[in-house]
Amino acid sequence: MRVARQEAGQEAGQGGAAEVLLEVRNLAKAYGGRRAVDGASFQARRGQTVGLLGPNGAGKSTIVGIIAGILDADAGEVLVDGRPTGTGHHDTRRRIGLVPQELALYDDLSALDNLKLFGALYGLKGAALAGRCGAVLALVGLADRARDKPATFSGGMKRRLNIAAALLHEPALLILDEPTVGIDPQSRNAIFDTLEALQRAGTTLVYTSHYMEEVERLADHIVIIDNGRVLADDSPAALYARLPARAALHVELAGPLAAALAAALAQLPGVAGVQGTGAALDIRLQDGAHAIAVLDWLRERGQVPVHFATARARLEDVFLDLTGRTLRD
């Protein structure tokens, strides 16, 4: 699915600037003497899912607030379909749906009444409002709980109802700010199922997270932010291509590897480095295709692997390469 979406995004890019739905230009925002956002720029094309990735405090939520028109930037601008989204630009802001990090629900109203309230704020009424409430409840898997109050819901169900509220007015752009914080894996997968349905329908998504695996699953374009600055802005494949090692091989040998053989192993074609001592080795590879050659080389020298496992590069590796630290440091 991700490959197909990425190809679609590339085709959109060939179509020119008209295919850009969201454009963030040189945003800056400071609180006191601290720069929360420092010259951030990126784009999202129609039907694209952009993962906005960075550690807690990187500036993701501030950027989301500026895009949604909740916060004013100190400098820079945000455009949707070429029109500004700042405070006061209500027509443009109606093209955006926001799922905030904090739940925005009324616990003493039923799920359906919550949606009716939010729908009315978007100007929906009558049959149009009823139809949209039914559609979004079905999309997030809560149709059978429409009459129940969120106070009786799990954390994951509340998150899904929050998503439903953001979709009532059929936004062209849906922004999700850490939508899986504090929920169980089953609820997280239910949210992913909803978002993947939106992707298939062509909705443009901006998904903020500090969980690598979520962005790897959903995004066909990734923006990595740290200290309010954009460090990388590219497709997953292009980000992985930056790494000196795009795969890894973990090997456990029957006995310790001699120092001379370890040094020779590190010089093999396709090997980007060797870590570990004794019989357990972590071998970084330029790509996974070199794993078989490395295992054969070890066997030819009497080094018997009793266990081995391969792994591909991860976004964590990209972030480490860019910043010198892991995402959760």
Structural features, described:
Keywords: ATP-binding, Cell membrane, Membrane, Nucleotide-binding. GO terms for molecular function: ATP binding; ATP hydrolysis activity. It comes from Pseudoduganella dura. It holds the Pfam family ABC_tran. This is ATP-binding cassette domain-containing protein. With 329 residues, the chain is of the alpha/beta class. The chain folds into 2 domains: 2-237, 3-Layer(aba) Sandwich (Rossmann fold), CATH 3.40.50; 247-312, Alpha-Beta Plaits (2-Layer Sandwich), CATH 3.30.70.2470. The chain has 12 helices and 14 strands. The protein has helices at residues 2-14, 60-67, 90-93, 111-121, 126-139, 155-167, 185-200, 212-218, 236-241, 259-266, 291-300, 315-323; strands at 20-31, 34-45, 49-53, 75-80, 83-84, 96-99, 173-177, 204-209, 221-226, 229-234, 247-253, 271-275, 280-285, 305-312. The strands form 3 sheets. Strands 6-7-8-3-9-10 form a 6-stranded mixed sheet, sandwiched between helices. The chain has a 4-stranded antiparallel sheet with strand order 2-1-4-5. Strands 12-13-11-14 form a 4-stranded antiparallel sheet, with helices on one face. Strand 1 (20-31) and strand 2 form a beta hairpin. Helix 4 (111-121) crosses helix 5 and helix 4 packs parallel to helix 6. The longest helix has 16 residues, at 185-200. The model is unreliable at 1-18 (pLDDT under 50).
